[in-house]
């Protein structure tokens, strides 16, 4: 009399493994060479097949790319509902690089350099595989991590203060050939500088430069003071307009046109000081009472 058999494929955490092919074979007996066709597990890892013949011993074997199953084979000769396998994935590694473009001083060209200290964090998009811990790029911008599992789709996301990244994140899985997962960083700040001087050109040291946000959502930086040569600089966030006001006890601030200065981004490369902003700051003066 024909009988049926069934079982389940699961990981160590109990999650079912879908898409596993269960293949049947037969040993000498009435049903020899007439083993039923293979079946595929459902999303919960369950499988079932009928048409097995009494008096014959059968084997069931599980297979799926990227997985190893224990036991390799199950043997049965009668109706069973417990023909289960434990599935473990073959771990794989992934790597990539984080870079940014920097303008070359004295030319209009730019060069690509690695971004060190960027954090690459990982998340599970689908599947049940473990999520490896975050890693940090090395001095050349390279990163690598291992322990990803074959039946899971992951997402990698870069992060570093002062940078925006393209793409902001990327998904990956164990597909051969494995390619590097790279990100391009762009500075999300710019540097402005200026000089405070008195009438006659004398530089004013120790003047406090205070910043206010006029528009945008960027943070308001802390005040800075001019150095011995009357120079100052500060890092500001892109997309925001700021107002800077100088102050020093015993001095009055003068300007021919206005009593405040708006600072906007004029150059996307923070390694090049904002010359247009410098020119604005240089024109006002602090003069003694």
What does this entry look like structurally?
- The chain has one helix at residues 275-282, and strands spanning 3-10, 21-26, 39-40, 46-52, 58-63, 67-70, 73-76, 85-89, 92-103, 110-114, 119-126, 135-136, 142-148, 153-159, 163-166, 170-172, 183-187, 189-195, 208-215, 224-225, 231-237, 241-247, 251-254, 261-263, 285-288.
- It is mainly β and 289 residues long.
- The chain folds into three domains: 3-89, Immunoglobulins (Immunoglobulin-like, Sandwich), CATH 2.60.40.10; 92-187, Immunoglobulin-like, CATH 2.60.40.10; 189-288, Immunoglobulin-like (Sandwich).
- Strands 9, 10, 13, 15 and 17 form a five-stranded mixed sheet that branches. The protein has a four-stranded mixed sheet with strand order 4-1-8-6, with no helix packed on it. Strands 3-2-5-7 form a four-stranded antiparallel sheet, with no helix packed on it.
- The protein is rod-shaped.
Break the fold down into its secondary structure elements and pairings.
Blueprint: E1 3-10, E2 21-26, E3 39-40, E4 46-52, E5 58-63, E6 67-70, E7 73-76, E8 85-89, E9 92-103, E10 110-114, E11 119-126, E12 135-136, E13 142-148, E14 153-159, E15 163-166, E16 170-172, E17 183-187, E18 189-195, E19 208-215, E20 224-225, E21 231-237, E22 241-247, E23 251-254, E24 261-263, H1 275-282, E25 285-288
Parallel strand pairs: 1-8, 9-17
Antiparallel strand pairs: 1-4, 2-3, 2-5, 5-7, 6-8, 9-10, 9-13, 11-12, 11-14, 14-16, 15-17, 18-21, 19-20, 19-22, 22-24, 23-25
